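Quick one: co-fold with 5-phosphoarabinonic acid.
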Amino acid sequence: MKQYEDQAWRESMRIRLDVNHLMDEHMDASAQTGFEKQVGAVTEADLAKIMPRAERARRSLSHKWGKASQMMGWTKLPTGQRKVVDDILKTAARIRRNFDTFVVLGIGGSALGPIAVQQALNHLHYNELPAEKRNGPRFYVEDNVDPERMAALFDVIDPKTTCFNVITKSGGTSETMSQYIILTTWLKEKLGNAWTKHVIATTDKKKGNLIRLAKENGLKTFVIPDGVGGRFSELSPVGLLPAAVTGIDIEGLLAGAAYMQEICEEEEDMRKNPGWMAGILGYLLMTKGKNIEVLMPYADSLKYMADWYAQLWAESLGKKFSVRGKVVHVGQTPVKSLGVTDQHSQVQLYAEGPFDKVVTFLAVDNYRAEVKIPGGFDDMPNVNFLCGHTMNELIKAECSATEYALTKAGKVNQTIILPEVNAFTLGQLMYLWEFKTAVAGELLSINAFDQPGVEEGKNATYAIFGRPGYEEKKAELASQPAKDPKFIL
Ligand code: PA5
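Sure, here it is.
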């Protein structure tokens, strides 16, 4: 039996959401002990008022009702991919046997998930480990078109032993397709016809150029299902193949997501439903002027989960129009921060600056390593107080201390607690955030699943590069007033 099939273990691994410091009731009690009065906490009246709409939002996000046409395909991913998972595991085993380097080519939702999951669940110096200690090939994600970075990649890879996974939902994103062209040309030069064994395409089953190229060249292909947008695609082959290649337990990830999905969809008591509650509170805080959410994991392993969440939250909720076409200009700016590192750079602002933020801590009960701080400084009490403790104790103390400092300063904050970082808890966290985002989108009455602001930039790039069909856009760009040199200093 797999660990995550054991009910007691599952319960022990349930992630928790502590929202005490968002709630007016609690913050008011804190104020009576001399803490600064909180501005913009959530009251019971706020919750009661939003309840009917929140209830409708929760019901509409069930995997039982969601239709692919409404971009709800992500709700089907935790439990609906048995055959795909088998194919991924088989392909991953072949890659692990035949290659010593695996490179993902993708951007945005086609890159941030693979990066985040790799950082969370594999060794923090994975690529530097000797091959026998790694769980698979060295792993790179190329999510930019910086020429220096591409040149640097060529310096560390060998065509004979490198496998590329090109990932693009639309099959046409300029950045990813330019990487595809560069790297497949290089492979062809070095390997001749055998290049096709070194490239795997993950894309839409019909739309876009990548699927056409994949079919023409007989590339192994994985499909990003209908109704799954880029930033909601990590639990599809987009994230599952790269994770499986580096030895991550993808069935554990999906089991964690399914566990959280059941809670989010079925639990009718908002106070026991973290995904739903997080979405409701996120929305209410926006209505109270909290325009920024700072995400602060107290674990290096979760550092890039903040990047993944930042895309999910920003791209889904930052919208000009409501679903009824009204101009609304909504959204909340996500800011990435790392505990304890950024205590020494950003926390001054969070404690004493404007009351425009909510801080979300990510805390971990049990780290996967323990490091002791040895003794030997008895004659220096100001150093010795650290001795005999562990770094585990220190990082947790610093997390509690920052939470206290912000609360004392009247700044709203919440904490998501992971019992430990493993595939099951990470799957839960991802699903919780996806559900939260979708709930907030419903309450804001916007389409959380499109990204017209991103498309505009993509189209402008096509126009600048002279892609056929973008002549009008090119003319529009050319009609901009020229920059005045007097404003360039
Ligand atoms: O969430 C999204 O849809 C976007 O951020 C995309 O992931 C990103 O633009 C990359 O698109 P594609 O996967 O089509 O190459």
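If it helps, The chain has two domains: 3-65+253-444, 74-248.
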